[in-house]
Amino acid sequence: MYKHSTQQQRRNQIETLYNAGITKGVDICQRTSIPKQTVYRVLNQIKDKKSLQHKRGAGRPSKIKANDKRRIAALYQSNPRTSLRSILPRLSSPVSISTLHAQVKRQNFVSKRAVRVPALTDLHISKRIAWCKEMKCFDWSKTFFTDECSVWLDSGRVNMWIKKGQTVHLPTFRHPSKVHL
């Protein structure tokens, strides 16, 4: 969008100078620092009385309809954990997973891992602080520590589609699914 407005400003600048009587492309290039090729192309459009408005590109039209685009954004804002594959059947037009992925990225969603934070209540926090204060002067030399081996049953990683710059905190438990050996 920004690129087209800059191009339109250049076209308007060249047209203004042309209407002011400066008809040589070299003179317009020197005054405006616009590339020579651009100046001559715009001057030819003016002389042929063609429109200086930006023409829409000749690319393929989008397969995803406007209402589907809104639906995708609403689904990810309501539940960031929704997978791309689970959204496909909810769309009114059949599209591939790569088309859907490109559309999600165009809407400024990024796939990120949620920041894992302990699921602590105010009561948990106050009890932990009290325990730390109580054990501050404890004689730890009489404590025996052992090693243990754990097997994790899940990775605990959760990918989410969220807007760029946004952070999601995922409450986690102190002991996720694992088996001690």
UniProtKB/TrEMBL annotation:
Entries under InterPro entries matching the protein: Homeodomain-like_sf, Resolvase_HTH_dom, RNaseH_sf, Transposase_Tc1-like
Pfam families hit by this protein: HTH_7 (PF02796), HTH_Tnp_Tc3_2 (PF01498)
Transmembrane segments: none
Domain of life: Eukaryota
Residue ranges occupied by any Resolvase HTH domain in the UniProt entry: 9-44
Sequence ranges assigned to domain Transposase Tc1-like in this UniProt record: 69-134
One GO process term, biological-process aspect: DNA transposition
Single GO term (MF): DNA binding
Name the record gives this protein: Transposase-like
Species assigned in the record: Oopsacas minuta
